[in-house]
Design brief:
The chain has a single domain, classed as Rhopdopsin 7-helix transmembrane proteins, CATH 1.20.1070. 76% of the residues lie in helices and 3% in strands. The termini are far apart.
Amino acid sequence: MQNQSFVTEFVFLGLSQNPTVQKILFVIFLSSYMATLGGNLLIVVTISSSSALQASPMYFFLAFLSLLDTCLCTLTVPKMIVDSLSERKTISFEGCMIQLFGGHFFAGAGMIVLTVMAYDRYVAICKPLHYSSIMNWRLCGILMGVAWTGGFLHSTIQILFVLQLPFCGPNVIDNFVCELYEVLDLACTDTHVFGFFVVANSGVMCILIFSFLLVSYGIILWSLRTHSIEGKRKALSTCGSHIAVVILFFVPCTFMYARPPSTFSFDKIMTMLYSIVTPLLNPLIYTIRNREVKNAMRNVWSRIMVTCNER
């Protein structure tokens, strides 16, 4: 069979076909998206507007992670909001490929950023006297370049293989976004070999990075036994937030890709966790116990109120 795609669009089954449930989903998706957009952009604006936070590499990485979460959420949720009011949920072949590429691009870059943030905390807590010399802005720029490049290469490799597959029907995806395994099931050829390549590329990467991060934070927490009570409290607060975000991010990704190449009933739940829930909760996790960020947000809000009153 020639490597030619006859399918011009895919049809989503979505979460429900019940009109009442779809209206409820519309409200949930819209509210979640607005909260996610507002929370993550607020973090980006706050860090960009605060000279104190700008001076810290940790907050530079946090702003970058919030930007990635905003992009990842925007890639899929607006389409989900529109589809929740549509009787027939479709996406063009090109649109599906964009979702696949963008999802793995932003997620791959996010993995690297979380790894960089763990390294930043390791240097800050375990080597405090050398922190400023090690985590200089030149290194921070290089690490962010690595994140963009790594995400791009990871996503490009997979999408190039998908584009070589023939799609001649059926075209129904039992999900609300384009997921890699669901799309592979629709190809008019045997995709088992490529499925195992996905496990090697995405699944193994998830497991290795997740394990590395857990070990890293374990070493960091173990090193705190020699710190003062105040130092322990502050470090535990910061590391606790980072560990919570790491678990939220990697657990769904591991379930999705570190498994045999097939589809399961809980895939929709996992997709919701990493595409909606994680970007929504990350701003709350990073700010709820972070006094510096909360104070900076109050200052930004106060300046905005003063500007509005002057006008």
